[in-house]
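Build the 3D complex.
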Amino acid sequence: MPELPEVETICRRLRASCLGAHITDARVLWRRTLATPAPQRFRARIRGQSVRTVDRRGKFVLLGLSRDWLVIHLRMSGRICLERNRPTLPAHTRLVLRLRGGQRMLLRDPRKFGRVWLTSDPAELLAPLGPEPLDARLTADAFHARLSGHRRQLKTLLLDQTFLAGLGNIYVDESLHRAGLHPRRRSSAVTGSEARRLWRSIRQVLRAAIRCNGTSFDAVYGGGDFQRCLWVYGRAGQPCRRCRTPILRTVVGQRGTHYCPHCQPLAPARATQRRTRSQP
DNA sequence: CACGAGACCTGTTCGC
DNA sequence: TGCGAACAGGTCTCGT
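Done.
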């Protein structure tokens, strides 16, 4: 579920609400939620630690504890909830961290894809990740160079977390549309100006989504507003907000993919056509 | 190296 | 109304 803007929003909320929280106990309700260590060791080791820092890397939430790092990946349906003790746990609770003062932090995850690591050094876990899209060190030229280093479809390359960390299905579709690039375009064939357009689109889309606190469709992730700003994702059959052509849905890399066949032609459109239609 | 299929999971929506 | 198929914000592994 959560992509970079949602994870960023979650981190900001956690930073405001649980810095300094002291963990008194842990309970694992679904074994596989814990990537490492095993539940018993996890419980023994996390007890007594407190939350010192909250950070994000790609789609990972990083809680810096007194002695370890608690690393969380929410995958498709995970959410982190902070709440006062209730008589019963809410549905789909997979992990409970009891906090001093009666609060507790829950990981709820219907599909059970989410993973949690407790480790003294998350470097190895995070090492494969590509650069942060919003990092100033990732210039348009550097991005173009990275694109040229592969011969892959843009959609699947942008979803690859080792290429760029944090994009998911929504924001890849939105970024490609904003850049006017077809999801199946070969990364190696993208020109310098197209790469710059894509680079700028990704950053604009992510920044706008963060300002909106992410995208909310249902109860899985709440509080976001960016769903009102989507131009292609989930809009199959509806008119393109730029040119009124119906948005198409197809499958690329086994993922539902939404795009405008007019604004995002696979074959390079003749400049005259694109210009006349997109200029006000 | 690039890509598709299948796995991991449950819940919701769609079509007949 | 009921029921199975399709689909979902992600990632890993395997075979070609």
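Helices of chain A lie at 4-18, 39-46, 123-126, 140-148, 154-159, 169-179, 192-211, 271-278.
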